[in-house]
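Hi Y.,

Following your request, here is the sequence exactly as I used it, all 427 residues.
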Amino acid sequence: MIKRYLIILLSFLLIKNVYAFDIKKINSSKIVSQASYKVNDTNLVDQENAENLFGSVQDLNDSIDKKEKEIQKDNQNRSQPKYKGAEDIFSDFSKSVVFIGNRKNKSLQGVGSGFVIKHEGKLKIITNWHVIDGAESLSVWIEPKEMVDENFLISQVDSYSAKIIKINKTKDLAMIEVEQLPLKIKPVTFGKFSRNLIGKTSYAIGHPEGHLWTFTSGMISQVRPDYSWRYRGSRHKANVIQTQAPINPGNSGGPLFNDKKELIGVNTFTTEGENLNFAIAINDVVDFINEKPKPIKKKKSEYIKKKDKGNTWIKKKKKKTSEKGSLDLSNAREVDVNGNGVIDAWLVDDNNNNIYEVAYGDKNEDGVIEIVAIDKNEDGNFEVVLFDTNNNGNADEAEIDEDEDGTTDVIAYDYNEDGEWDKFENV
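Below is the corresponding structure, written out as tokens. Let me know if you'd prefer a different format.
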């Protein structure tokens, strides 16, 4: 009877001792060895009872470990918000999407979408090149506290002025930056490019036809590597995602998400036919983000081979280029480029096909033409621009678009103005 009482008392003391310590610091083997020592030292229990006590303590420790794991798992589940699907995507990232206005001559000439990323420790905005092409200034609107119609937003809600950081015309991508974006804006999370995307659901946020912050979804129909397309006379090529998520003009530059709330593409264009919508794939977007910025050049004109004579070519093509009076500009379209009331550019359509093959520019408005550009293939882009940098009537510098993709490939210099290009510098 006394032995039984002492065993019960000892077990109680051990259990009380267990709960007196931090659960995380319990060492079961130490507890068991101490218990066995006290039992043998006092000669109160035999070996069988000691083994029973060992088993009781071990079972108690296992039970505590199990409970601790259950508590940890429950805490983890509580800390992770439940995914609500499409609703979750819009609520999390609609404020990451911006409305972009392309302004020229102080008027809005085009609108599009963009989204916020974090790059080199700063918030930047990704959009399509064609959204910002030709802009004299860019305005960016962030989702207001209360959704309003587009006319009210444009005219009354404060906008942010943005500048162009870099472009990639071939992939139809652009990066712009606002000086001080609100810190509350959440940058998007990048996903991965994979052909396994086919059949999965995609989600688009943008401003189709000016309908602000529109949310659409649709199945990914195909992934098309090295896809070529033309838009507004420009040629483009990139990896694209074909999706059934509806997009329209105004969606351009907006994000395409997967069901994990990750960015997988930039919505860019749609073609004739039902549900034929395309987004530039995430791998090309990431490559563009990591590209070193290149100088943004003006449009170019007239393909010139490296052996062509600069001054001979320009005089042959334009007679004497230093004085406006030597040129027949009676049929040219007069343009006030900077809007100050002085005509400083002349556009010539020799073929009467509504495409300007030749452009003359008087940049400093001194009455002398310093710039001559030609669109040889009449695709709407100038492939070569010739400059008279010292105003002496001779072309001494040229920007050349050799592959006619809309960007400068070579800059040519004629240092001695002898009509021969002395140096060619790859861009």
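Residues 117 and 187 are 5 Å apart (CA to CA).

Thanks again,
Q.
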